[in-house]
Amino acid sequence: MSKQTGSPIEDCRRRIWLVDSKGLIVESRFENLQAFKKPWAHEHEFVKDLPEVVKAIKPTVLIGSSGVGRTFTQEVVETMASLNEKPIILALSNPTSQSECTAEEAYAWSEGRAIFASGSPFDPVEYEGKTLVPGQANNAYIFPGFGLGLIISGAIRVHDDLLLAACE
């Protein structure tokens, strides 16, 4: 994000909010946070539950990657839909049983407006006479090509710039 926009990394971090198993990553939790979480701690009151975090932060995108299924509840998705014309719901955890929500749930709870992608394949969903096709956004698309490129090039180390180029 910083490289693409030319913005300082600190400005970019201010736009990204993280939630872990204990709640929102905030400065009041700083002493007990793992080192890799500390740069993401915001000055904000602590909020424990995801539905309340969504109401407080008003995100445009939800990215689930915890491996804890069903965390994007009806309340969470409906709140996202009330805040965004096209809420982006990325339920990336695998296997499908651990997905944060299903495509059908995301579409139903957002009145068919969600932009949905998952880490596992979901079948198309019929919603009010329209066929909505969920996207799949997982490592199956990047890692095989990236791995092959590393083997072919004989690279010994993978630097951040290499990963960024592959993602682009």
UniProtKB/TrEMBL annotation:
Ranges in a coiled coil: none
Residue ranges occupied by any Malic enzyme NAD-binding domain in the UniProt entry: 1-168
A Pfam family of this chain: Malic_M
Gene3D superfamilies, A to Z: NAD(P)-binding Rossmann-like Domain (3.40.50.720)
SUPFAM superfamilies found in the cross-reference section: NAD(P)-binding Rossmann-fold domains
Superkingdom to which the source organism belongs: Eukaryota
Protein name: NADP-dependent malic enzyme
